[in-house]
Design a protein that fits this description.
There is one protein chain. The chain is of the alpha/beta class. The chain has 17 helices and 20 strands. The chain has two domains: 294 residues, Aldehyde Dehydrogenase, Chain A, domain 1, CATH 3.40.605.10; 189 residues, Aldehyde Dehydrogenase, Chain A, domain 2 (3-Layer(aba) Sandwich). Helices cover 40% and strands 20% of the residues. The strands form five sheets. A seven-stranded mixed sheet has the order 14-15-16-13-12-17-18, sandwiched between helices. A hairpin with a 4-residue loop joins strand 3 and strand 4. Helix 6 crosses helix 7 and helix 7 packs parallel to helix 8. The longest helix has 22 residues. The structure holds 1,4-dihydronicotinamide adenine dinucleotide (NAI) and magnesium ion.
Length: 502
């Protein structure tokens, strides 16, 4: 293991972090799993073990929920003023920026993404989410409501609403943007005054643990955020089943989203879900292809296609289709695969062997069903979990590669001739509804298409544009509720109506 460490071209602070024990954060204390078990963190570019982390399970979830309940009901958190809470959340954002290089290295090593991407996207966006949400701590308010109460004539009332924190929140996050997903979840929960048990993804537990240390450094009271590393079927399921958890916020597969909804039925705990996608990215014949082609390549290849919003179905007007396919394929061929920590790398490995095999399974299914790879088409054998950036053509709407989320660097290009009938019908012919892209110079057409697409986000002449102020979430089986913006605050709020007879 030391040999692995010595090979790593990372800063001394990252090495020091890797050498610290990787325990669970419960009630302000770092502790091993109750079972004493640990599991390996794997560098997906080499398949080698980086370190071990605690394998939390039901007993640890019980302890963490007790700590979160205690912090919610008593202690400094519930009596802290909104201004104090806001300043604390702001400080978390500052500390994330203060540790930018270390967090980016940890993220790259754990997830496989290029270090330079983690530096400019994952870490600063995570910090921004805390900075943005800090402001809401002092700006959420209820209303005074003029009421009439028809059946008590002559009586006057004073009525108002109070936005109140929903309580103890269980948050379960995936591995594609580990730190950023933790920020998307934690920041709004904290600003509304909730307490949290966060279950990070088993593939990428490291940045969540480093964030736990940062939360302590920022002065977050004990038990307000508890962090559990462990597996979905055990620790994750225990969190969802726990009767003292008021709400589950989940990001991950639609399959697990459905399991969570079923499990939450027994006590009707609140649930918000940010799930999969199969997003259409549409190039009209009047689009500026010099912008649209690299845009379409970025829409699918960013983060190795491991984005819920990935533009995985590329619809191009038949008159520009050949040019678009050739252009995107050329972009794909130029992408340099390698270790995330290598400064020349443009695309790293898939996050895990399982994910590499899953993507390979889709590539094989595509081939069997008659799709053709213009470029790429293969998952590499060997130690790292690499998949070639792939452009598929000759697909039909019933193929698995068109219907299902691949979550890899694989785009299917599809020509269309008429806008309304053919294109809109096909674009919306999916169980998902997370995002969509439109490339055109015709603004009025862009607006009318944007209105017809059944998706929570529509990007025009751009793609994968995220901002803490923009609500993000899905129609249909892409989820329930929205992340970010003021919309996410609803996920963590109960509205109380108070009426006083005067
Ligand atoms: P997953 O949905 O199984 O995992 C996401 C999180 O849920 C992890 O923290 C995991 O531990 C937890 N989890 C798993 N089973 C659980 C259960 N029964 N109860 C509670 N928590 C549970 O996703 P996975 O297996 O990593 O990836 C499978 C596919 O899901 C991907 O190929 C992709 O299509 C999709 N996915 C979508 C994401 C998104 O951002 N919407 C993120 C990750 C995966
Ligand atoms: Mg899974």
């Amino acid at each position: 293991m030391n040999a692995v460490r010595n090979d790593l071209n990372v800063s001394p602070s990252t090495l020091a972090f890797l050498d610290r024990p990787k325990h669970l954060l419960i009630g302000g204390r770092w502790m091993p799993a109750a079972s004493g078990k640990t599991f390996a963190v794997i560098d997906p570019a080499t398949g080698r073990e980086v370190c071990q982390v605690a394998e939390g399970d039901k007993e640890d979830i019980d302890r963490a929920v007790t700590a979160a309940r205690c912090a919610f009901e008593s202690g400094p958190w519930p009596t802290m003023t909104p201004a104090e809470r806001g300043k604390l959340i702001w400080r978390i954002g500052d500390l994330i920026l203060g540790h930018l290089e270390e967090l980016a290295e940890i993220e790259s090593l754990d997830n496989g993404k290029p270090l330079r991407v983690a530096r400019v996207a994952d870490v600063p966006l995570a910090a921004d989410m805390f900075h943005y949400m800090a402001g809401w701590a002092t700006k959420r308010h209820g209303a005074t409501l003029p009421i009439s109460v028809l059946y008590t004539p002559g009586v006057q009332y004073h009525s108002y609403t109070r936005p109140e924190p929903v309580g103890v929140v269980g948050q379960i996050i995936p591995w594609n943007f580990p730190l950023l997903m933790a920020a998307w979840k934690l920041a709004p929960a904290l600003t509304t005054g909730c307490t949290v048990v966060l279950k990070v993804a088993e593939e990428t537990p490291l940045s969540g643990l480093r964030l736990g240390e940062i939360l302590q450094e920022a002065g977050l009271p004990d038990g307000v955020v508890n962090i559990i590393t462990g597996f979905g079927e055990t620790a994750g399921a225990a969190l969802v089943a726990h009767r003292d958890v008021d709400k589950i916020a989940f990001t991950g597969s639609t399959e697990v989203g459905k399991l969570i909804v079923k499990a939450a039925a027994h006590d009707l705990k609140r649930v918000s879900l940010e799930l999969g996608g199969k997003s259409p990215n549409i190039i009209l014949k009047d689009a500026d292809l010099d912008v649209a082609i690299p845009g379409a390549a970025n829409a699918i290849f960013f983060n190795h296609g491991q984005c819920c919003s990935a533009g995985s179905r590329l619809y191009a007007d038949a008159s520009v289709y050949d040019k678009v396919v050739a252009g995107v394929a050329e972009q794909a061929k130029k992408i340099k695969l390698g270790h995330g920590l290598d400064p020349d790398t443009q695309m790293g490995p898939m996050v895990s062997e399982i994910q590499r095999n899953r993507v390979r399974g889709y590539l094989e299914a595509g081939e069997r069903e008659g799709a053709r790879a213009v470029t790429g088409g293969k998952a590499r054998e060997g130690a790292g979990y690499f998949v070639e950036p792939t452009v598929l053509v000759d697909t039909t709407p019933d193929m698995q590669v068109i219907r299902e989320e691949i979550f890899g660097p694989v785009v299917a290009a599809i020509p269309f001739k008429t806008l309304d009938d053919e294109l809109i019908r096909q674009a919306n012919a999916t169980v998902y509804g997370l995002a969509a892209g439109i490339w055109t110079r015709d603004l009025s057409r862009a607006h009318s298409l944007a209105a017809k697409l059944k998706a929570g986000t529509v990007w025009v002449n751009c793609y994968n544009i995220f901002d803490s102020a923009l609500p993000f979430g899905g129609y249909k089986q892409s989820g329930w509720g929205r992340e970010m913006g003021d919309a996410v605050l609803d996920n963590y709020t109960e509205t109380k109506a108070v009426t006083i007879r005067l």
